[in-house]
Amino acid sequence: GAVVSQHPSWVICKSGTSVKIECRSLDFQATTMFWYRQFPKQSLMLMATSNEGSKATYEQGVEKDKFLINHASLTLSTLTVTSAHPEDSSFYICSARSSVLSRNNEQFFGPGTRLTVL
Amino acid sequence: GENVEQHPSTLSVQEGDSAVIKCTYSDSASNYFPWYKQELGKRPQLIIDIRSNVGEKKDQRIAVTLNKTAKHFSLHITETQPEDSAVYFCAASRGGSNFGNEKLTFGTGTRLTIIP
Fold first, then answer.
1. First to last CA, chain B
2. Inter-chain residue contact B51 with A104, CB threshold 8 Å
């Protein structure tokens, strides 16, 4: 149980285009989903926290108009990188928390999406 | 906000020896401390976690100790094996409610290399 998937696993796009990344909880309902960005050889940096049906809460320094988050259901959250530029190239990882399955504050992580912007 | 520091950034250990990674945190309200193992290009895997009402927790070769007064916690891996080679991250979080939005703040990571 507590499986989180992401799609796509990797994507290459041209500068100026938009890319959508999906995060799904496959066998549970996720009350909260989190989006992280990880640059090479660096730690996971939280971008935003989202709850189903409400607006995402963005971390300081993260542009909400550039990184659009939609959490339309208890099993799906999407991150859209708008007008992507080479500096947006990174490993994007989502995680989900379940009110039923999460012990303490445990988060279940997706496999990540490698974004390369040319 | 919370700040989590992690040391060392790299650690090389002879196979069979022990490895210790240390973290400190700044928010005295944090009460959940997980440790993750991440292999290259893959998701972080939870390997052990501890709540603030416990000082030590052990799971086979892995143990975590917590000193809430000093605001630091450590990961101990004994009898290290080549497959233990990976990047390890500590993290800290407030709360304990399963309904909360409490976020994890990650440490900077430790690249552990086990030398055969």
1. 41
2. yes
Check pLDDT > 60 for residue A93.
Answer: yes
Q: Which of B27, B24, B26 is nearest to B94 (CA)?
A: B27
Q: How many CB atoms lie within 10 A of CB A57?
A: 16
- Residue located via tokens 């407030």: B94
**Chain A neighbors of B42, CB-CB under 8 A:** 111-112
Contact A79, A95 (CB under 8 A): no
Find the distance separating the first CA and the last CA of chain A, reported in whole Å.
37
Which tens digits make up the pLDDT trace of A13-72? 999 999 999 999 999 888 899 999 999 999 999 999 998 878 899 999 999 999 999 988
Calpha distance A39→B69 (Å, rounded): 33
CA gyration radius for chain A? 13
Q: Determine the distance in angstroms separating the CA of A19 from the nearest CA of chain B, rounded to an integer.
A: 20
The pLDDT, as a whole number, for residue A23 is 97
Mind telling me how many Å the CA of A66 is from chain B's nearest CA? 21
Residue with token string 């916690």: B73
Q: Name the residue among A65, A76, A92 with its Cα closest to residue A33.
A: A76
For chain B, which residues lie within 8 Å of any Cβ of chain A, measuring from their own Cβ? 32, 34, 41-46, 49, 51, 89, 93-96, 98-109
B76-110 pLDDT, tens digit per residue, is 999 999 999 999 999 999 865 544 568 899 999 99
Residues B4-21: b if buried by 16+ CB within 10 A, e if exposed: bebeeeebebeeeeebbb
